[in-house]
Amino acid sequence: MKEINVIYSSDQNYKKYMGISLTSLLENSKQYFINVKIIGLGITDSVELKQLEERYSCSIEIVDFSNWLDRLNLKKNEWDISISSYARLFAGDMFPKLDRALYLDCDTIICGDVYPLFSIDLSDNYVAAVIDTASNDIKEKTGMDIKNPYVNAGVLLMNLAKWRRNQVSDKFLKYIAECDGRVFHHDQGVINHVFQGKISIVDPV
Predict the structure, then answer these.
(1) Contact between 132 and 151 (Cβ < 8 Å)
(2) Which of these, 126, 133, 196, lies nearest to 156 by C-alpha position?
(3) Is 47 a residue whose pLDDT tops 90?
(4) What distance in Å separates the CA atoms of residue 145 and residue 175, rounded to the nearest whole number?
(5) Residues 65-106 pLDDT 10s
(6) What is the CA radius of gyration of the chain?
(7) Tell me, what's the pLDDT at 81?
(8) 41 burial class (0-12, 13-18, 19+ CB within 10 angstroms)?
(9) Residue whose C-alpha is closest to residue 5's, from 190, 203, 160, 110
């Protein structure tokens, strides 16, 4: 049976939405073994997650994000999001045995087979993602060359082997520090800045 590695991140407030997303993934992936990694903030093993494991014969592992928070030096931005959104930045270090994984935002609904995404040619790129709507002003605020595409970080095919080889978590933290802890577009801005020029673009349809 083919195996798929999928990563979520969530705090307690978004846990129920993540459960809906995860169920939609599992319902559309019954022909595969799904290896689910949840980077959780305040989330522990629950009856519901155990039931999903039993029903779909998948593996669900929770990694406590609080153990990584001291590496972040963030300051309150003009608008706020859950700090658990930054968890994806450490995926390469958190899961040293995974070379490639699909990251999904916890509010993503899966309506079809995700396995073909794993055949995307990443070449020497860090991630594969869909272009987001971003003006040149947004790119400049993210410290990007306006000629480079700006992508949405809600669905990412991650080349985690390359993340580890190039120690990208250190690059992420360096950029956050350069922004004095106030990153435009938060972790999505970090990903677009650090990975610019090294992103495989995916057709949204």
Answers:
(1) yes
(2) 126
(3) no
(4) 15
(5) 998 888 888 876 544 678 889 999 999 999 999 999 999 999
(6) 17
(7) 73
(8) buried
(9) 160
Q: What digits encode the pLDDT tens for the residues 139-194?
A: 999 999 999 999 999 999 999 999 999 999 999 999 999 999 888 899 999 999 99
Residues written for the chain: 205
pLDDT score recorded for residue 40: 93
Cβ density class 92-131: b for 16+ within 10 Å, e for less:
bbbbeebebbbbbbbebebeeebeeebebebeebbbbbbe
Retrieve residue 153's tokens.
């970080």
**pLDDT score, position 76:** 65
pTM of this structure: 0.94
Can you give 13-57 as a three-state secondary structure string?
Answer: HHHHHHHHHHHHHHHCCCCCEEEEEEEEECCCCCHHHHHHHHHHC
Alpha-carbon span 5 to 194, nearest angstrom: 23
The beta-strand segments (E) located in the chain are: 3-11, 33-41, 59-64, 100-104, 127-129, 155-159, 199-201
Which residue type is seen at 95?
Answer: F
CB 128 within 8 A of CB 200: yes
